[in-house]
Write a structure and sequence with these properties.
Four copies of one chain form a homotetramer. By secondary structure, the first copy, chain A, is an alpha+beta fold. The first copy, chain A, has a single domain, classed as Transcriptional coactivator/pterin dehydratase (Gyrase A, domain 2, 2-Layer Sandwich). Chain A is built from two helices and three strands. A three-stranded antiparallel beta sheet of chain A has the order 1-3-2, covered by helices on one side. Chain A is globular and about 35 Å long. Chains A and D meet through helix 1 and helix 2 of A and helix 1 and helix 2 of D.
Chain lengths: 91, 91, 91, 91
C-alpha cells in the first residue's frame, strides 16, 4: 500500500487516493469508510478500480466543500493512517 | 430505484448506471457485485455518489472490453434485474 | 430466498432468520443492514453461514430487548420484505 | 484490538475470535474476509456482535474440518496479523 496522497484541491473539493494490496483490502477499507459516512449522514463520492480507491468530497447543495466535508476527510485520513501503520510493517 | 440505463459504449467500455433508494441500498448492491467480481477475478471500475452507482468495464491490458467484461456485465445486469423486480413492487 | 421466519422470542430477544440464494446475496443484505445499524448506533448480533443470516436483538446493558431493538427489528423486516418482493418474482 | 485468540478446537472445527476498535472496523475486516472466502468458494460460519467477530470453520459435508478449512483459517490469520500490526501501533 502506498502513502495516501492528499491531492491538491480540484475545483474546491477535498480529494484523496489510496492504493491497497489488492481488491479485498481496498473494498474492506471502503466498507469501513461507508459505515462512518452513513453514521455522519454525509457521503463521499468514491471511485475504485481493483486496488485503488479515490474519494472526492464536496457539498453538492453548496457547490463547494463545507465543514462536513472536512470532518469526513479527517475520518478518512485517520482510517487510512491506521492502514498505513500496518502497511509500514507488513509490505 | 430507476430502470438501469445500459448506456451506450464510451470509448469501447461497457458502462452501467443504477440509482437506488438510498446509500445503504446502493452499497449493499455494490457489496454483492464485489463478491461476484472477486470470484470471477475480474473487477469493474465503479463510481458511487450516495444512491448512485456507475460501472465501467474494460480490460486494461487489452485497452478494450473483452469476453470477461461482457460476462461481468451480464452478472451485474442479472443482479440489477433482481433489484428491479423488487423496485417494481415497492417503490 | 425463503420467507423470513420471525422466530419466537428466545430468552426475550428478537430473532430473525433469512435464507438467500447464495453467499453474495446474503452478504449484500448484511451490508445494507450494517449501514442502517451504524446510523442508528444500535447493532444486532448476527450469525451467518453461507446463504443464511440470523439476527438476535437485545440490549446487553438492560439484559432484555428495548425499544431500540424493536426499531432495528422493524428496519430489518422492511429490508427483508423488499428482498422478498424480489424473491417472489425471481425464485 | 486484542490479540487474536486461536481457540482450541471445539468439536473439531477451527475457531477464531477477534475484537476490533468498533463496529466499522470489525465489519470492514469481515468484508475483506468475505471476499477471500468467495474467491476460495469456501465460506466460514461467522458471528458478530458490535466490535467482535468469531469464525468457525468446518466442512459440513464431511462433518469435520478439511484442508480447505485450514487454508481459509490461514488466510483469516494473515488478514488478522495485518490488522494486528496496525493495532500494535495505534491502540
Amino acid at each position: 500500500m502506498e502513502t495516501p496522497a492528499a491531492r491538491a484541491h480540484q475545483d474546491g473539493a477535498y480529494t484523496r487516493e489510496f492504493v491497497f494490496a489488492d481488491f479485498a483490502e481496498a473494498f474492506g477499507f471502503l466498507a469501513e469508510v461507508a459505515l462512518h459516512a452513513e453514521k455522519m449522514d454525509h457521503h463521499p463520492e468514491f471511485t475504485s478500480v481493483w486496488n485503488r480507491v479515490q474519494f472526492r468530497l464536496t457539498s453538492h447543495d453548496e457547490g463547494r466543500p463545507t465543514e462536513r466535508d472536512r470532518d469526513l476527510a479527517m475520518v478518512i485520513d485517520r482510517l487510512a493512517l491506521k492502514a498505513l501503520g500496518r502497511a509500514d510493517r507488513k509490505n
